[in-house]
Amino acid sequence: MGHVIAKYGVSERLACRVLGQPRSTQRKIPKEPEDEAALTADIIALATQYGRYGYRRITALLRDAGWLVNKKRVARIWRREGLKVPQKQSKRGRLWLTDGSCIRLRPEYPNHVWSYDFVEDRTHDGRKFRMLNIIDEFTRECLAIRVSRKLKAVDVIDVLSDLFILRGVPGHIRSDNVLCGEAAAALGQQISARRFAGSALQLE
Q1: Across the chain, what does the average pLDDT equal?
Q2: Of 71, 126, 152, 177, which has the fewest CB atoms closer than 10 Å, so is most exposed?
Q3: Residues 9 and 45 in one domain
Q4: pLDDT tens for residues 137-165?
């Protein structure tokens, strides 16, 4: 308002009428509540701790903590501080579990993280078949597909062993399917053997 008055040399009354703003807004000095700084700090702390909560749930947490505050005031501070709920990640790419108990490793380079999973379908005669798919999570390249009526742990180890020979051992292998004790031990031996062989070649 002051800029308009100074630039065009008009009165405050005329400037307010043209801009559609009540004149009282130019006279009333806004007063910040004494607890504004403390409330803002608590809102930021809760938003940091509960990253998926919006201002309504933060308001409920503040009330549980003893604050007498309504959601409109929290929303105002929320917008002023630039807080927002991050966009929900897709199930395939999310970095946390639904209960927040685990951080999912993000692949950073080729051969860093491989993952394998099974896909099931039926042929025209109604018989089931399964496909074992192994991908590099960084490049999104499908490294291998094995198709069979039945796929067991030994098949997983067999395909991974071939890939270890062709591409080397990845930093991590991820899967929703848990191998049994013997199969997991066999896979661990394969990984150790390939890494040992690679180290021996480098020393030579």
Answers
A1: 79
A2: 126
A3: no
A4: 889 899 999 999 888 888 888 888 888 88
